[in-house]
Amino acid sequence: MGIQHATDDTFEQLVLKNDKPTVVDFWATWCGPCKMVAPEMEKIAAKYEGAVDVVKVDVDANPRISQAFNIMSIPTIAFFRPGQQPLGVAGARPMEALEAQFGLAQYAPSAETTATEA
Question: Which residues are catalytic?
Fold first, then answer.
């Protein structure tokens, strides 16, 4: 499915009511570090396809979401697990750092992906 784009109107359905864990990239078009994070989000979306959803939120176009989650700096990457409080980190991070921060390895769809990292 790749990366989805949430709006103030679709965020609840795509993220909060999602039965899968979801990585959310809060970004803006003018943000340089956000552009550095974009390929890392693509990697996560590809590696965890079917197990973890990846959603991007343009904070300028969707101010209600940003206010609701108190997003003060971008990029902010947040990890939403069903029924739990979200975890978040501010600033550009490589995929490996995000995987470690959020414990994504437990959601890897197959053993093949972990074998290729070794």
Answer: 31, 34
